[in-house]
Amino acid sequence: MRKNKEDGRGEHHGHHHHGHHHGRRGGRVRRGESKFLLMDALRDSPKHGYEIIKLLEERSGGQYAPSPGVVYPTLQFIAEAGLIHAEQDGVRRIFRLTDEGQRELAAHTDEVADFWAQFEPPTAPAARAEVGFLEEELEYLTRTIRGGLRGDPDAELVRRIRQSVENCRTEVRSYIAMKV
Fold first, then answer.
1. How far apart, in Å, are the Cα atoms of 3 and each of 32, 36, 57, 108, 125?
2. pLDDT tens for residues 83-123?
3. Is-contact 15 70, C-beta < 8 A?
4. Where are the domains of the chain?
5. In terms of CATH architecture, what is 20-117?
6. Which of 29, 40, 59 shows the shortest CA–CA distance to 97?
7. Angle in degrees, CA 172, 175, 179, rounded to 5
8. pLDDT tens, 9-66?
9. Longest CA pairwise span in the chain (Å)
10. What mean pLDDT is predicted for residues 125-135?
11. Which candidate in 7, 60, 124, 173 could, as Cys together with 64 as Cys, close a disulfide (CB 3.0–4.6 Å)?
12. pLDDT at position 17, please?
């Protein structure tokens, strides 16, 4: 979900990740994003942790299967934030979204949709090739920005680059919206 607009970008929620972290099979998740994926898994009904892990794995075609060592501390964090409620059901804890959690999840719909979009296969071989080229271009852009911001970058330069990236994202979203 490749875009993280969350205000708490540097939060680690009790565990440390730098850049992307992966589920067991390689679904890419940005820092702070896993909490929205876990909340999204609870969108339709309450679930226990194992059901959440299995749902994410199935929905991603086996490409994203977060470990219990990521899932349970994150569930604890979002429960403490009041976004989900945990209740004991025998030996298991069942998690459900709170009203506040539903509002927070709704505010991050784009990030969740962006994450799941990486698992939707293009329909034609030509489209798959183009997606590969697009992914390369995104990597080149990331490298260009990081390289250009090394050292002590000027605040105005950073602001202008950020604005350019935001404008590009808006334009891409308009293309996607036309497709639907």
1. 11, 12, 21, 10, 26
2. 999 999 888 899 999 999 999 999 998 889 888 888 876 56
3. yes
4. 20-117, 125-179
5. Orthogonal Bundle (1.10)
6. 40
7. 140
8. 333 333 333 333 334 334 567 767 889 999 999 999 999 999 999 999 888 878 888 8
9. 57
10. 78
11. 60
12. 35
Report the SS3 class of residue 25. coil
Cα 121 to chain centroid distance, Å, stands at: 18
Which residue type does 79 have? Answer: A
The C-alpha atoms of residue 133 and residue 80 are separated, in whole angstroms, by 42
C-alpha pair distances (Å), 108 with each of 5, 41, 88, 115: 8, 14, 28, 11
Give start and end residues of each alpha helix (H) in the chain: 34-41, 49-59, 68-80, 99-107, 109-117, 125-148, 155-179
Can you read off the two tokens belonging to residue 176? 């996607």
Structure tokens given for 69: 């060592």
Question: What is the C-alpha separation between 4 and 135, in angstroms, rounded?
Answer: 17
